[in-house]
Amino acid sequence: MSNLDRQPTPSVCGGRGFVVAEPVRELLSPRHVKLGESTEVRRLLPNLGRRMVGAWAFVDHYGPDDIADEPGMQVPPHPHMGLQTVSWLHEGEVLHRDSTGSLQTIRPRELGLMTSGRAISHSEESPRDHARFLHGAQLWVALPDAHRHVEPHFQHHAELPRVTATGLTATVILGELDGARSPGTTYSPIVGADLAVTAGTETVLPLEPDFEYAVLSMSGEAEVDGVPVLPGSMLYLGCGRTELPLRAVSDAGLMLLGGEPFEEELVMWWNFIGRSQDDITQAREDWMTGSRFGEVKGYAGDRLDAPELPPVPLKPRGRVR
Asked: For the Pirin C-terminal domain, which residue ranges apply (predicted)?
């Protein structure tokens, strides 16, 4: 659950000044980024047009990749601060290790939720004996100031609540949807749900009008509020909605992401979320000197070094670029 860009761009996100207060249909295209040796991801957040959706601050979609004769995902130990990571798979497995001692294989439609709080480090890898295909999403949730220094911890939930209707199964990843609540710990009003929609289905999802929303397409062909959304793209929907029309042209997999617009301004760089450039500078120094972030045991390889900080001070630019 990482940003392996060796020249990451620092950005300020959060704040409500650029939140779209009414329903919109803003289609976001991905940026292609290498993750480790053999995995390429499609990065939807942060995006040239938008940096957050509620507390969701980072969204990567990857696969389906044929890794039958490949090592698959191989991400060495690296740090996180001020955020939660969400691992979500449609195919394959990912082995998670972290500096709290967690060791867990995450499988399709199981929730792997890591809360970094003040500091954590972890690694991600496809097991040696793995399925042929790897397909999933990796996401970050920004922690509000009151909780950003909590003790780091990891949760794994193999069983999650579901909301069903004709042609639709919605698995609640985080937060609450239509009365079903995920067991995953959250620190701000938020929702994440996996939507499996069968071909020919036309249905409507209930939404919270005070939340802003986006829908990520994982697979298949679907229309979200009348807009065609293809795999690897994301439709930003704004606020002010009480329901969301969905239509599946083929069997389709989608992710609904939403939450109360995030009021605090954040500084995000590499794998850290802070409130100032000083926060980021200190986190980088602590990782490079072996302080604070702990040790990931059992990974066969070296940990990642942090990239160099940019030579110019961070310039706030708000929620959108």
From this structure: 193-292
In a domain, 85, yes or no: yes
Taking only the tens place, the pLDDT of each residue in 292-314 is 999 999 999 999 999 999 887 65
Range of the domain at 44: 24-259
- Which residues make beta-bridge pairs with 139? 59, 86
What type of residue is 83?
A: L
Nearest 5°: phi and psi at 275?
Answer: -115, -10
Residue linked to tokens 């290790």:
97
Buried b (16+ CB within 10 A) or exposed e, 31-55: eeeebbeebebbbbbbbeebbbbbb
Nearest Cα residue to 109 out of 186, 162, 53, 32: 162
pTM of the model: 0.93
CATH of the domain at 174: 2.60.120.10
Give the model confidence (pLDDT) of 83-129 as tens digits. Answer: 999 999 999 999 999 999 999 999 999 999 999 999 999 999 999 99
